[in-house]
Amino acid sequence: QVQLVESGGGFMQPGGSLRLSCTASGAIFVVYDVAWYRQTPGKERELVARINTDGNVDYAGSVKGRFTISRDNAKNTVDLQMNDLKTEDTAVYYCNAHLVDELNFWGQGTQVTVSS
Question: What is residue 27's predicted lDDT score, i.e. its pLDDT?
Answer without folding.
Answer: 76
